[in-house]
Specification:
There is one protein chain. The chain is an alpha+beta fold and 65 residues long. The protein has one helix and four strands; from the N terminus they run αββββ. The longest helix has 8 residues. The radius of gyration is 23 Å and the shape is rod-shaped. The protein starts with 9 loop residues before the first helix and ends in a 10-residue tail after the last strand.
């Protein structure tokens, strides 16, 4: 079994692992047909509360900032 001869430094270890932690942007972003906001596909729009042309979540103008 291979055993390292010397301790691996924190910087060297983190350089090796740097590509593992990269985040990717979601590829399924679409425009909401009701309000035009960018949303994830097959999700309720957070801005207007519509999904496939049907109001799922009631949003009032007084609550929005």
């Amino acid at each position: 079994m291979a055993v390292p001869k010397r301790k691996v430094s924190h910087a060297r270890k983190m350089k090796r692992r740097s590509s593992v932690w990269k985040l990717e942007t979601p590829t399924n972003i679409v425009k909401c047909p009701n309000c035009g906001e960018d949303i994830l596909a097959y999700r309720v729009c957070r801005a207007c509360g519509y999904y496939k042309g049907v109001e799922v979540i009631a949003k009032s103008e007084a609550v929005e900032k």
